[in-house]
Amino acid sequence: MRTGLVDDRRFAEARAERLADRGAGDALIRHDLVRAGVDADLVEHALMALESERERAARIVARRGVGAKTARYLAGKGFSEDVVHAAVARPGDETLG
Questions:
Q1: What is the pTM for the complete model shown?
Q2: How is the chain split into domains, by residue range?
Q3: Is 43 a residue whose pLDDT tops 70?
């Protein structure tokens, strides 16, 4: 269990940022912080301080390319289904394969 509100906030923000920089989505970051004993309000605060999940996913797609393989990668990294679909869907494509 973490101690001290200021230390917990710094820890949560720093950990969330490190995970986001490594390509993690919000669900993975949330899980990691909760597992570390961070209070739910501080977890949400840390997530709100990050670049949006959509922007992070778009950067990964730009690097890896559009397609089912990238969709699976994003899902495995904790990105929401809506974000994954928006990031990798081609115009007129209703399935991700």
A1: 0.84
A2: 5-48, 53-88
A3: yes
